[in-house]
Structure formats: C-alpha cells, structure tokens
Write a structure and sequence with these properties.
Blueprint lengths: L1 H9 L2 H8 L16 H5 L7 E17 L2 E17 L7 E22 L10 H4 L7 E5 L3 H4 L2 H9 L19 E5 L15 E15 L4 E9 L17 E11 L2 E12 L8 E4 L6 E2 L2 E9 L5 E9 L3 E15 L2 E14 L3 E7 L4 E7 L2 E13 L3 E11 L31 E10 L8 E11 L14 E12 L9 E11 L2 E13 L4
Amino acid sequence: MWNLFKHRILNNPLSITLALFSSFNAYALSFDSQSTNASQFNSDPKHGIFNISYDNHFLSKNTSQRSEIFDLDEWVHGLKVDFQSRYYFNFIGMDVSLGSATYINNGIAQGGNNSGSSGSSTGIAQSLQPSDEQTFNYVSASYEALTGSTVQQIKACSPSGSTPSTPSHCADIQLPYGQERVDYLRQPQLGNSSANEISAITQAYTKMRFGSKQQPFHVRFGLQSLNLETFSTSGSYVLPSSVFGALVSTNVSGADVYYGRFNQYHERGSSQFIKPFTSYSQEQRVKYIDVLGTQYTFENGLVGQLEMGRAGNQLKKYFGKLYYLMDVAEGISLSLDGRVGLAHGKQAYGYYDWLSPLNQFFYVQYEDYKSRYYNVTAALHTQNSKLYFGINKTELADWGSGYFYDDQSAFNSTLALYKNYNHKNELAWVIGLDYDFSGIKLPGLNLGVHYARGKRPGEDIVLELDEKNTEQEVGGYIAYTLQSGLLEGLTLGWHFARWQGFENNEDSSRFLLTYNLANF
C-alpha cells in the first residue's frame, strides 16, 4: 500500500498540486447531538452562499471473508460546487450542488482460497459457484422456506474437515438463485472498476416558505440530500447520494413536524441523474417512500422525537428517541440518549447475508419480516472531551437499514460504527472517547477512539453457521485543521478500524484532506 502511495505521489506532480488546494471531510463520532431536522432544510441565509472544494480520499482495506481474501487500495479525488440561494421576495429560493470524481488509482484484488478446503467438485456447492469474481449468487427462495427440511440437506452437503468432498446425492438439491454484481465493500466511490470518472448533479431543488416566524411553513421540492432518523442519504467522501421528492415542515404547538415523499434517487457512484426505487430483491418497484416525524422539546430540556416511514406496501419503520442533557458539576454534564426502532416488511423483503454451508453470499427473503432494536447511551462531557458508553440489542431478525435496493442509509444507533452490530439477537456495547486538544493549547487537533463488542447466543442460526458468534472492533480517527496562514482551514485526517468476528477479519485506513477553495 505504502509503495503504491509513494509511487503515485512522486510520479504525479498534478496530484501534489491539487492536494495543496484540497478539501477533506473528517467525520467524527457524535452520539450526544439532538436531532436537527428543522434546521437541516429550513436554513435561511441572508445572502447567497457559494462554495467550491476539492476532495482527496485514499482508502486501503484488507478483508478476509471466510475462504477468500480481498485487498482494496482506492485513491479518488474530485471537485464539488455548492450554491445555496437566499429567499427571493422573502418567499422562494434554489439550492444546487454538483461535482465530479475521478480515480487516481482503483485496485481491487481477490486472493486465493483461505479456508483449507478446496470446495466441492460436484453437487450444489459447485453448481452455485459464481461465474467470475464480479458476481455472486443469491437465493430467490424465502427465509421461511430455507428454515425447513432443505436446511438439513444443505448442512449434510456442506464440505468439512472430515468430509472433504460433497456426497453425490447433493447434486439433487436445487435452489432457485440469481446473480448480482459484486460490491464487496460497498465503498468504491465510482461504482465499479470499469468506470474511471463520474460527473453528477447531486442536489437541485426549489425551496419555498410561508407564514410568520412564529408559524413557519417550509417546502423543498427536487433532488436533495436528507438526514432524517429512518431515511438518510450518503454524505460520502467525494460525491453524495440524494433523493428526488418533496419535504415539508412546520411548527404545531411548539413541536416541529415534517413530512416527505420521495420516488426516485441519485446513487453516489453514477452519473445518471435519477432512477426509480426498487425492492431489495430488485423484482418489484417501490413507487414512493413516505416519512412523517415530529420533535418536541419539553420545559425541563428533555427532547422527544417520533418518526415513521414506509416504502410503498413493502416495508414500514417506526422510530422513537428521548434525549436529555443535565449539568452534574461546573464544566461537566451528562447526556442520556435512548432509542427504539421497529420494522415490518412484506412481499419478500430481505437483505444480503452469508450462507455458511455453501460458503457464499446470498440474498434471503422473508415472507413476513420483523425486526426491532433498543439502544441506550450515556456520555460524560467536559469542555474538551466526551466519554461515552452505549448498549444495543437487536431482536427477531437482522435490522435492515435501508428502504430500497442500494439505499445507503445508516443504522440509527450509537452502535453504527465501522460495523453495525445489528445481527439477529445480538447484544453489543461500545465505549469511546472524543478529545479536543484546544484545552492544552493545541487548537485544531481532534482525536477519537472506541472499542465495541457484540455477541449472539450460540443458537443454530441457519444462514450464519459461524464458528463463533462474537465480533469486536477497535477504531477511531485523528484530524488536524490549520488555524492560520495561507492554508488556514485545511484539514488532514486519518480514520482507522480493525474488526474481527463471524469468521471475517478487516483492516481499514482512510486518509483524507479537506480545504475549501473559497477560503483560499
């Protein structure tokens, strides 16, 4: 990785020049912030705001997935332009964002078999092998069907140390399946290795406002980025994703109320303007996604929020949150954050998972999908630091974060870290520290570290016959922003994570650099 990095720098003067005027988004963990739905789409600049920035993002990731080893070294850079208008005639305005991204280097390598078993030469394990490394198989049968007698047949046909070859009768097992393009890490900014660059309009919407300051009424219509509780778009590190539709907000008796309806989206790895939603199975159209929510701050400072969303008649989600911040001593405060999420899916809603006996990824459907999670986090705050501890429990089934195929929404939990810790019946916890070094006369330097661990009961989980039912990670970030000089505001950062569990191991490093050219 480092040889590649040095080779590219020493032999690419253009990259050096661009890096000196570049911008980089350092994403820190934030578990104590109150929801800001109203502010995110009701901003009211007195004058038009115009920003142009250059982003440079280098990602190195090594993954051992059961029997295969994948290595990703990706270097991407791009320009972003954002314009946010004022409200003309105190009534109407327009916001536009566009950008372009290009690979400096894109290397995804697939290693050899690492399982100690070469697999099967006959039967189901061979008949369902991918045609090449750019595709993988998925089951088109339901989860309920797989939990029947077929499971025992699959287990009996699974190669093992004592049974290096698959019994001949396994060839009689037939499962309906399809193939999907591989996106092993769901990380490459430009989609796949055949694409070298993208240019896209990521936001283009009209905004209107009515009423008074005491009774505001805001409307946003068009292609836009979102950050709602159950539905959000990807901020990405170079170009973001977005959705097309309408978002309305107002205030009713002191409560912020918002409603959105969306029917198309722009994916972050494509130059295509917008495309329709499809179900996770990609066999059905999702005509629209509705989100309705409200947030209220009580007199004692307690903040409550409720939100519900639905993807056509295929999936419904419900979310609740309570947040409270209290002073415990001079300069010290304590925040408590409690969340609960419920999901119910119909019409074969499902998600991608790992079928251990066949040593492959599969898309698994549910005729009647139900999942829920509970999340509680406490954080101790000082002027320059935050120490936090959070617990999350997921029940009934894995929590599916998205509403549609290619949805890049985040799992709304403080356990949404490098991994989501959202497996069926998983109990997980995290402890972490964020620190701002300005308190010891090093302004601009920020550091964050965390350790997380999750465990599931040792039950016989059909699709996840792992050797161990635990996972853990160590991760964090360090970022520094120049405080003065010609490049004041330039930020350098490094995000890192090491994860182990469920027969997998991953190491990830991100090197990022950010500078707003408007500041220069």
